[in-house]
């Protein structure tokens, strides 16, 4: 797999590039946001540091999400909850705080890659409708009253899982295991952040129904 490593620290970049190469990946390392945008379309996976010399990493993440939907993990020293939430809302598939164990990062890369591949293959040609919301599981698109709504990869993955069996209630643990690959993230706010993002971007608060103390279900909205 061809990795784009956006990292301005030479020692960290060398360690990451070496570990990734040992796993059979090819790595292009860039230092600046402008370089990352230039080479993003050539990559299959992105590792993104937030402390860049020419642009804040969160702003770069937002720009990247306008040109590609590649699997992306933020790897940064920023550990405040505000930073984590910003990264997830901007479209990161995962968020890893430095210092970290290399084995853990490699496992997270494998998980994100596996879940991303599975979500892209899921759904066949099905389109699910609830009220004026149309969810195309194959094309990975959402429209509200005919207007396209841009969700992050993770937001769409959550919505697609609920839409695949519209009447089923999915537990938090199941969603975290199926989408994040780790049911033990249940104590984190990652899932809640993505559900809030779906509701806000579609302007349909009832699109994702909360089953208190258990999980979520696709909401049965009134017709248009």
UniProtKB/TrEMBL annotation:
This is Response regulator transcription factor. It comes from the Bacteria. PANTHER family: REGULATOR OF RPOS (PTHR48111), TWO-COMPONENT RESPONSE REGULATOR ORR33 (PTHR48111:SF1). SMART domains: REC, Trans_reg_C. The keyword Transcription regulation applies. Residues 2-113 form the Response regulatory domain. Residues 125-220 form the OmpR/PhoB-type domain. SUPFAM superfamilies: CheY-like. Keywords: DNA-binding, Phosphoprotein, Transcription, Transcription regulation, Two-component regulatory system. Residues 125-220 bind DNA. The keyword Phosphoprotein applies. The modification 4-aspartylphosphate is found at residue 49. CDD domains: trans_reg_C.
């Amino acid at each position: 797999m061809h990795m784009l490593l956006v990292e301005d620290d030479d020692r960290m970049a060398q360690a990451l590039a070496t570990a990734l190469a040992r796993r059979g990946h090819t790595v292009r390392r860039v230092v600046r946001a402008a370089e990352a945008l230039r080479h993003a379309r050539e990559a299959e996976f992105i590792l993104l540091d937030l402390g860049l010399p020419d642009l804040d990493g969160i702003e770069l993440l937002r720009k990247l999400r306008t040109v590609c939907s590649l699997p992306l993990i933020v790897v940064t020293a920023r550990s405040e909850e505000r930073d984590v939430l910003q990264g997830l809302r901007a479209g990161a598939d995962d968020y890893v705080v430095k210092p970290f164990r290399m084995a853990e990062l490699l496992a997270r890369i494998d998980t994100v890659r596996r879940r991303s591949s599975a979500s892209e293959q899921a759904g066949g040609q099905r389109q699910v409708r609830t009220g004026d919301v149309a969810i195309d599981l194959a094309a990975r698109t959402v429209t509200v009253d005919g207007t396209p709504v841009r969700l992050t990869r993770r937001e769409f993955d959550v919505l697609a899982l609920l839409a695949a069996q519209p009447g089923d209630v999915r537990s938090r643990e199941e969603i975290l295991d199926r989408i994040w690959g780790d049911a033990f993230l249940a104590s984190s706010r990652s899932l809640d952040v993505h559900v809030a993002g779906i509701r806000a971007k579609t302007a349909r608060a009832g699109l994702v129904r909360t089953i208190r103390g258990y999980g979520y279900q696709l909401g049965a909205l009134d017709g248009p």
